[in-house]
Design brief:
Helix content: 40-55%
Number of strands: 8
Strand order of the largest sheet: 1-3-2
Length: about 200
């Protein structure tokens, strides 16, 4: 396979995205990449990230490619899991305590810091609205965070998410209880499970 074919394959594997980090793994030079980008009219959407002309930029995917520590949480995760129907007004991300997130704190990004114990609990991957796989907290972790942040969440979103989770297929109550215990909030979570269950 020649270099052009390798790059084309990378684009196909990544839904129309070409990532310079993946190109580097294939031992293809920056010079060849720059030539390929120009010849194939690829658009640069961020440093080291290019898309084909038929692809709409996926804000969540691009953010995560640029910031490996980012895990989507809060209303963003609730929306991606289909637990709320109204799209998030700002992107909510969690990063480990001590992570320098200054560059993330733009107008529509809310950054939450999580201790090592909390940060890695319940991470999974789901498709973004554009179909690219992104890392988010799973449904059970989202419910724990929802209960924890209930005073900061719109009442409608809180009620919708709790009902969707409790009435939806695929809920894992044993996992929810396990997370609640690890987060020191079992009684609070169980109270809402009984109300909405």
């Amino acid at each position: 396979m020649n270099k052009n074919e390798i790059l084309q394959q990378l684009i196909e594997e990544n839904n129309g995205y070409l990532l310079s980090s993946k190109v580097k793994e294939k031992n293809i030079s920056k010079t060849f990449l720059a030539k390929y980008v120009k010849e194939n009219d690829l658009e640069r959407v961020a440093r080291g990230i290019y898309i084909t002309e038929d692809v709409w930029p996926d804000e969540l995917y691009i953010m995560q490619v640029r910031n490996a520590a980012v895990i989507f949480s809060g209303e963003t995760a609730l929306y991606l899991h289909g637990l709320i129907d109204r799209e998030y007004s700002e992107i909510c991300v969690s990063v480990p305590t001590g992570y320098n997130a200054t560059h993330l704190k733009t107008g529509n990004v809310q950054v939450k810091y999580a201790s090592k114990k909390r940060y890695g609990l319940g991470v999974c991957t789901v498709p973004s609205t554009s179909g690219n796989m992104v890392r988010v907290y799973d449904r059970e972790r989202c419910i724990c965070d929802l209960v924890s942040d209930r005073n900061k969440i719109e009442v409608q979103n809180f009620q919708t998410a709790m009902k969707e989770y409790m009435l939806g297929k695929g809920k894992k109550l044993s996992r929810l209880i396990e997370y609640a215990e690890k987060l020191g909030m079992r009684d609070e979570v169980m109270k809402y499970v009984e109300v909405f269950g």
